[in-house]
Design a protein that fits this description.
This protein is of the alpha+beta class. It is about 35% helix and about 35% strand.
Length: about 100
């Protein structure tokens, strides 16, 4: 069974970095007990407003369950985060080979 990694890459409006950080903390807390994926968040070295969110599932089935069963709280956080983002988010999904 192959692991799945999904990366969401984006830049945040510098005026909204503090709001974004609070939303990321909410997102981390929301995923603490998620049975399908682990969630982590990274800032690009040398660029204060460039970030990635990483979702890792142990199997393709777990990833599909995550995509199909997102909860209401996660949706609300993501909608609030979009207000902080400049431009479009870039989604990359990788399968373990």
């Amino acid at each position: 069974m192959a692991k799945v990694i999904m990366i969401v890459q984006y830049e945040v409006n510098e005026a909204k970095l503090e709001k974004h950080q609070l939303l990321i903390e909410q997102m981390k807390n929301n995923f603490v007990n998620n049975p399908n994926v682990t969630y982590s968040f990274y800032k690009q070295k040398g660029k204060a407003n460039s970030f990635i969110e990483m979702y890792v599932a142990n199997t393709e089935e777990d990833f599909e369950n995550f995509e199909n069963n997102e909860n209401y709280e996660t949706d609300l956080i993501e909608k609030r985060m979009v207000d902080c983002i400049i431009g479009k988010q870039k989604y990359l999904t990788f399968l373990e080979n």
